[in-house]
Amino acid sequence: MAVAQEAGVPCTAVWLDAKTSLLPRLASRSVSPSDADLEVLSRQLAAEGITWQPVDADRDANEIARAILEIQSDS
To answer: pTM score, two decimals?
Structure first.
């Protein structure tokens, strides 16, 4: 967020809200730049100064993408 602000470009922080039953899946993820794991979740929960835009992640990926695009167009 700070980098985007310094560059003068818009940035939207999106929180994909998933059921807690998915936590074991997070714990078992391998190292990949696109994979959030429990460490990433912990840092996100502790982040200060960020206004997260919640998005329900318990649906089809295309629906999630549309919801994010709608948030960005409203900003």
So the answer is: 0.60
Query: How many CB atoms lie under 10 A from the CB of residue 55?
Result: 19
Under 8 Å between Cβ of 52 and 13: yes
Whether the Cβ atoms of residue 30 and residue 18 lie closer than 8 Å to each other: no
> What are the per-10-residue average pLDDT scores of the chain (75 residues)?
87 82 68 69 78 87 93 81
Residues contacting 15, CB < 8 A, separation 6+: 44, 52, 53, 54, 55
Residue with tokens 């936590």: 23
Other residues' Cβ atoms within 10 Å of the Cβ of residue 29? 13
